[in-house]
Write a structure and sequence with these properties.
185 residues, 17 strands
Length: 185
């Protein structure tokens, strides 16, 4: 489905699902397959979806909730990014924004190597992390076996790692900066 100026709402769909809009919000619910979402000037909301997801916006937030995927690529220039879903062994998850916050749900028992990059923002996690490979603006840590690759980047925004059920900042948070050296949980 494509629109130049208008919102697109899609419930269902399977196989290759593609929603594109120049100026309009995109909403996708209960779809399965290879998902591609692209809008220039509005938000993208994805709920209850199974499959590989690519979502891009220039000026808008991107929110993915209740997702089952092993391949996520989310990019926006001026907006926040939220991902609450699976992080599967061997999967690849990339969440990037230039000017906005990133919120990533990390289920207990996740096996991932996580790379975090922020130029002018803070990092916070609801659980202790043990940081390695630290540079001035980038650092890496491993959860479990480190099987999945997770890349989280915000040039001018905060990065928050949450436990499911604590998305949106509703839980009590242990703040860990990239300079802390606590043991991995």
């Amino acid at each position: 489905a494509e629109s130049v100026q208008g919102e697109i709402i899609c419930r269902g769909g399977s196989g290759n699902v593609s929603l594109k809009s120049v100026e309009g919000a995109l909403t996708l619910e209960k779809a399965r397959g290879r998902i591609e979402l692209n809008t220039v000037n509005d938000n993208i909301t994805v709920t209850d979806v199974v499959g590989d997801i690519t979502a891009e916006s220039v000026d808008g937030d991107i929110e993915l909730t209740n997702i089952e995927s092993s391949n996520i690529d989310i990019t926006t220039v001026d907006g926040g990014v939220t991902y609450d879903g699976t992080i599967k062994d061997g999967g690849h998850y990339s969440l990037s924004t230039h000017d906005g916050d990133v919120e990533l749900g990390v289920p207990p028992g996740t096996n991932a190597t996580v790379s975090v990059s922020t130029f002018d923002g803070d990092f916070e996690a609801d659980f202790p992390v043990s940081v390695t490979n630290t540079t001035k603006r980038r650092f890496t840590f491993t959860l479990g076996s480190g099987s999945a690759r997770v890349e989280v980047e915000s040039f001018d925004g905060d990065i928050h790692l949450r436990r499911p059920g604590q998305m949106g900042g509703s839980g009590k948070h242990k703040v860990k900066s990239h300079n802390d050296n606590e043991d991995n949980q």
